[in-house]
Specification:
Elements: E1 2-6, H1 16-22, E2 27-33, H2 35-38, H3 43-61, E3 68-71, H4 74-85, E4 89-93, H5 98-114, E5 117-121, H6 143-152, H7 195-207, H8 213-216, H9 229-234, H10 239-252, H11 255-280, H12 302-310, H13 316-328, H14 333-346, H15 351-361, H16 367-377, H17 393-400, H18 405-410, H19 419-423, H20 430-436, H21 447-461
Parallel strand pairs: 1-2, 1-4, 2-3, 4-5
Bound molecules: flavin-adenine dinucleotide.
Residues 217, 225-229, 232-233, 267-268, 270-271, 274, 333, 336-337, 340, 358, 362, 364-366, 369-370, 373-374, 377 line the site of flavin-adenine dinucleotide.
């Protein structure tokens, strides 16, 4: 008997380690609720995890098997399950964060002690760390070169979904509830979590959206993106299956439409780039990638941090984004960039405050992508936004949400205001604001002044101030 240990691969289809284990089954599928991982979790992600596990369990049950779940340190729990079921080999797919790598090291040692064989597979990325490097063999710190190589490489086909004959004949009880795991129900609406739901999202996007992705992805009021990030992060769908479907759409598209599809493929590469960066630099979870001569003198301002979190800064696009995050545990990418720039450059608050808030709120939080993007916005990351390039939240709002549809969806206080008023909110006097939208706050800071101060803050860090 073999165990397949599910972690961030909550599916049976296109699952490399599971397919390998099933090649010489029977396979006992296992998931372990690990307190070390759960301490960094949050209600939206635990809710999504439990729903995805429920669907995974159901798909095993339909094949006459079940999902074996346990709670505790995997290094202790897994050898026990293996012993109980006469398992001689354990399979899993790699995870690339520092925390996972340390845990896997301990699990390997425990299995070695117990005389149980084990094998780990690269599954979550098309191209694992170490396979896309500079000509000298070093990891890339600039995305564009990495992206070109990533796009040129051949991609593997999806792995087969095991049938019931390859699975252990077991019968288990139901999953724990979110409260039993120590979390409250999320206040945000969470997307459906299953391989079917992920496939539906992928189909919808490939049938309608992907060919205009290069433009459409920038406008938060439009449904121009795939909404697959939580599925990629929890593995409810495999990367090869996504690429196969995207390639089909590309085959059917004409020359112009392929630009949109290629832009999407490049974003997939971007996600893998950040996974490589974190793999080689696990300390980035808490430390800057880019070193400055002096420490960056981030401000400390609880009131402004609270206004940012609550979406009451008086900058409409920022507030809309922060409220979308609260209501949906999600935020559009363009708006994530705007709110991250606002926190780090207008409010001059440490990117770690923003990263932690996103980690607690996003259903699609992924250490590598969250951290890589926050450090990009804060001018501390790989290939980061130069410190002197500061997004203007008003012109960003006007350009990417010209009719203020996105803003009005999340900021009802501005419902009766026209787009021009909304996009010049920072230039109005108190009386004009009072008459246009009496319940919406005045800006908490002046963008032009803060931009100068932020540049000066970075120049001091560079030893130039
Ligand atoms: C400050 C900030 C924090 C972010 N935190 C996360 C996070 O925790 N988890 C996460 O998955 N993404 C994060 N992103 C990246 C991006 O915003 C989301 O992946 C995207 O909005 C998810 O929606 P989607 O699946 O519809 O995206 P789509 O536009 O359909 O993108 C498809 C896929 O491409 C990848 N991708 C897209 N944009 C980016 C990007 N900017 N960087 C890296 N990969 C990208 C993702 O894997 C995504 O699922 C963050 C971006 C910023 C600016």
């Amino acid at each position: 008997m073999r165990i397949h240990w599910h972690r961030r691969d909550l599916r049976t289809a296109d699952n490399r380690a599971l397919a390998a284990a099933a090649g010489d089954g029977p396979v006992l599928p296992v998931f372990v609720f690990d307190p070390d991982v759960l301490q960094y979790a949050s209600p939206p992600r635990v809710a999504f995890l439990l729903a995805a596990l429920d669907s995974l369990q159901e798909s095993y049950r339909e094949r006459g098997s079940d999902l074996y779940t346990a709670e505790g340190d995997p290094a202790e729990v897994l050898p026990g399950i293996a012993d109980e079921h006469g398992v001689d080999e354990l399979f899993w797919n790699h995870d690339y964060t520092g925390l996972s790598q340390e845990r896997d090291e301990r699990v390997r040692a425990a299995l070695d002690d117990a005389g149980i064989a084990h094998e780990a597979f690269h599954d979550a990325l098309h191209h694992e760390p170490g396979t896309i490097t500079t000509n000298d063999g070093d990891p890339y710190s600039v995305f564009s070169y990495f992206g070109d190589k990533w796009l040129d490489r051949e991609k593997a086909e999806p792995y087969p979904d095991p049938d019931g004959n390859a699975l252990a004949d077991i019968d288990r009880e139901s999953l724990p509830t979110i409260h039993e795991l120590g979390f409250d129900e999320p206040s945000a609406n969470i997307p459906d979590a299953s391989t079917e739901a992920a496939r539906d999202r992928l189909d919808t996007f490939c049938d309608d959206g992907i060919t205009e992705y290069d433009e459409g992805r920038e406008y938060p009021a439009d449904e121009g993106t795939s909404r697959l990030s939580q599925d990629r992060n929890y593995g409810t769908i495999g990367v090869r299956e996504v690429t196969e479907r995207v390639d089909e759409a590309r085959e059917a598209a004409d020359e112009d439409e392929r630009d949109g599809i290629d832009a999407y493929r490049r974003e997939l590469a971007f996600g893998e780039f950040f996974a490589h960066v974190l793999f080689y630099n696990p300390e980035l979870v808490v430390e800057n990638y880019k070193s400055y001569e002096n420490p960056i003198d981030w401000r400390d301002d609880d009131g402004e941090l609270r206004a940012w979190k609550e979406g009451t800064t008086g900058y409409p696009i920022v507030d809309a984004g922060m409220r979308q995050l609260r209501e949906e545990a999600y935020m559009h990418n363009r708006v994530r960039m705007i709110v991250a720039s606002f926190l780090t450059k207008d409010l001059m608050l440490d990117w770690r405050e923003g990263y932690t808030h996103f980690r607690e709120r996003l259903v699609d939080h992924d250490t590598a992508n969250d951290n890589g993007n926050w450090q990009w916005a804060a001018s501390t990351g790989t290939d980061a936004q130069p410190y002197f390039r500061v997004f203007n939240p008003m012109t960003q709002g006007e350009k990417y949400d010209p009719d203020a549809d996105y803003i009005k969806t999340y900021v009802p206080e501005l419902d009766d205001a026209d787009p021009e008023t909304i996009h010049s909110w920072n230039e109005l006097d108190d009386e004009e604001r009072e008459s246009a939208a009496p319940d919406y706050p005045a800006p908490i800071c002046e963008h032009g002044e803060r931009r100068e101060e932020a540049i000066a803050m970075f120049e001091r860090a560079r030893g130039e101030g």
